[in-house]
Amino acid sequence: MEEVEVVVAHSERATLRVGEVFLKIDGDPARAAAEREAMARAPVPTPEVLWHSPPVLALAAVRGTALGVLGAPSEASSAAWAAAGRAVRRIHEAPPPPTRGRTIAQFGEELERECAWLLEHSALPAEVVLRNRDIARAALRPVETVFIHGDLQITHVFVEDDEVTGIIDWSEGAPGDAMFDLAILTLGHEERLEDLLAGYGQDVDRRVIRAWWSLRSLTAARWLLEHGFDPDAPGCEFDVLRARMHDPA
Q1: Domain map of the chain by residue range?
Q2: Which among 18, 81, 90, 211 has most CB atoms closer than 10 A?
Q3: CA-to-CA separations, 14 to 24, 46, 94, 99, 169, in angstroms, rounded
C-alpha cells in the first residue's frame, strides 16, 4: 500500500502525494483550470495531467530534484542554475495564456496594506519595513508583460544532470513582469542570481529584481504567519528583508 504524504495543506488548498501521483485539492476551480492552461502553453517540461475531476487535479511526479529550498544553501551546480535561466527565458518568450495577471496598481495597494499591518503588529522593526517599502516601490513601474510562471519558487524547478526536468505549480501562470519570476526564483538565494542570468541573459534590471525581493517578502509575511509558516526562520523572508538594509541607498 502506498503511503499518503501531505505535501502542503492550508485553508485554500492541499496537495497530497501517493506514490508518483500528486493530488491537488483546491477550493477555487478557476485555479486548477488556469494551471492546466498554463502548463499546456509552457515551452518547458511540466507535470503530466493524469486526470482532473474538480476539486481534484491529479499530476504525475517529475524527474529530478528541486534546485533547493528556502532557508538552506542550494546544492545545485552553477550549470543547473544556468539551465534554469534558459528555461525561464523560454517561458518569457512564449505567448502568454489569456488569464489576467495582477496589475501594478494591485501590487502597490497590497504593498501599502501589508506594510501597515507589519507596522501595526510590530512583526519587524519599523526601519526594516520602511526601508524595504522604499526599495519595493522600484518594482511598481510600467512594464511590457510576458508569460510568467507567477510562483517560481526554488522548490518548483526540478533538475537532473544539470538540465531542467520539470517546472511545477502553474496556477499563477499569467502575463506579468519577467523580473518577478527571476526574483522569486532567487529569493533567499541572491548569491545564485548571476548563475541564473548566465543562462537567462544579462538584459535585466538587477535593481528591479532586488525590489521584487523586498515586495514579495513584505506582502507574503502576514499570509505565512496566519497559515502556520515562519517567515522568520533562518534564510527566509525576514532575513531577506534584513539583508536589504545593507544594500546601497
Answers
A1: 64-244
A2: 81
A3: 6, 19, 29, 22, 12
Global confidence as pTM: 0.94
Cα separation, 112 vs 149, in Å, equals: 24
pLDDT for the residue numbered 249: 58
Closest to 183 (Cα-Cα) out of 147, 148, 155, 208:
208
Phi-psi region of 64 (alpha: psi -120 to 50; beta: other; left: phi over 0): left
* Cell numbers given for 65: 530534484
Which grid coordinates are listed for 81? 542554475
Q: What is the pLDDT of residues 44-63, one digit of tens each?
A: 999 999 999 999 999 999 99
Q: Which three-class secondary structure state does DSSP give residue 195?
A: helix
DSSP 37-67: HHHHH-SS--PPEEEEETTEEEEEPPSSEES
| Phi–psi pair at 175, nearest 5 degrees | -65, 140
Asked if residues 190 and 213 have their Cβ atoms less than 8 Å apart, the reply is yes
Exposed, middle or buried: residue 10 (CB in 10 Å: 0-12, 13-18, 19+)?
Answer: exposed
Report residue 201 as a C-alpha cell.
541573459
Average pLDDT of 99-127?
96
Ranges 6-15, 74-83, 86-95, 236-245: which has the least confidence: 6-15
Sort residue 169 into left (φ over 0), alpha (ψ -120 to 50) or beta: left
Residue 1 has pLDDT above 70, yes or no: no
Q: How far apart (Å, rounded) are the C-alpha atoms in residues 12 and 23?
A: 14
Q: Is the CA virtual torsion 109, 114, 120, 126 positive or negative?
A: negative
Topology given in CATH for the domain delimited by 64-244: Aminoglycoside 3'-phosphotransferase; Chain: A, domain 2 (3.90.1200)
Contact of 179 with 54, CB cutoff 8 Å = no
